[in-house]
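Standup, Tuesday
Yesterday: got the pipeline producing structure tokens again.
Today: sanity-check two examples.
Blockers: none.

Example 1:
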Amino acid sequence: MSFQPIATSLLRPLERENKPYIPTTETVHYVMVLGSGHVIDHAMPITSELSRTSLMRLSEGIRIHRMYPESKLILSGYSGGSAVSQARMMAKVALALGVNKNSILLLETAKDTWEEAFQAASVVGKQKMVLVTSASHMTRALYEFKQAGLEPLPAPTNFLASNKIKQPWVRYSPKSQYLEQTERYWYETLGRWWQQLRDALSDSKQSSQESTAPETNSNVSLELAQQKINHPA
């Protein structure tokens, strides 16, 4: 499982199901970045308080947002037991990297992709949105967003598996980075199985899409000018 030819052959097909984002001439109204973990540790620089995955997603989201200066950057993720939500922590980093605070919207209560999708639907409506998440997670995320009535443009990032490694001492030596690829493959595979099971169990109970949606009121912090981001309560 920590052997590159095996780990990469498992994960790479998942990651390549969606191509990297290509700029379009159409107007993009929203760029949404899905959160993926953080810590609160003031002994670290703020960029290190985000997980590697979160920082990769956020940097791609900011890159695309700058292609469309009039777009809003939606950042999502709940607190997970810490004093600051994932969304707010990413917002702090985005501000430090030069994003205008009036361009940022927060979804601070969504605990998983399903909730993120339905909360985003209440904000985005029929407008054009780019969705940023890890390449291995993108197909599963797109499924949830389509269930919520959205058709986002995929912008996968945080690619882990590459078959372009040439050095034999890198390809054929067991390494923890390849074990991570195997772990990510199984995490996403189990997530897809759970989606199928959840939908099968809910089909007999749900008569409309509205009945499946989580509560969306008070989930969006609009202009960050109205928020005390740097000094949370």
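Example 2:
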Amino acid sequence: MESWFGTTSQYYFTPFSTSHLLVLFVAVLGIILLIGFRNHIFRVSRLFQTLRWILFSLLLSSEVSYQYWTISNGIWNFAGHVPLHLCGIASITAMIGLLTMQRSWIQISFFIGIVPAFLALVTPDLPYDYHHFRFWKFFVHHTAIPWACLFLALAKPDAITLRSVFKVFLLLVAYALVIGYAVNPLTAANYLYLMQLPNTVTPLSFFGDGIWYYLNLGITALLLFLLQNFLWNRYIHKSSKRLP
């Protein structure tokens, strides 16, 4: 138990190993099922409410258990363990969205939660394999984030509009400025990877250096938001049922 919940393990994570491929399969399967059965899910109130609170519980328990792990092992610090990365913020906005079902939280969660969380699943910055708590926390959390964000959008498909693209993008830019000019410098943190790249190879590794890195981040985010909006309204929106 100590090694499973401790800070070390003899079992190290290997990208695209059997355990990694299995969790990727589960994550993709969940997305397919949500989209494929979306009208049934939102037509049956009990099923909708059950999934709603399961997703909320997964997000909340993942974050609380991670904070408990860092504190109990004496490694918690503000610079590394506050949920200020994009996936952490998406988890929080998704939980608020699941609680309130308000359009603004659904819009924010949809645009900032699905793609970043899936990229994190494919290229995880993770030290240990399935023999350790960190493996399960990471993959349960980063699987539940896109599921919850998609679930919210499917519940109210009219919330995803072209206007919401620019609304969320401007909010993201404002958040990045606060993180980049205040939080990171004052706490020696690297939230949003604005100070340096992740330890593993990710798409961020190809964004260049200096000012080009930040410009490419912003342009890519806006293009991804626009692509999400196009795909949503082209293939999902018109055939989805609306919640009353």
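Quick observation on example 2: The chain has a mean pLDDT of 93. The two ends are 47 Å apart (CA to CA).
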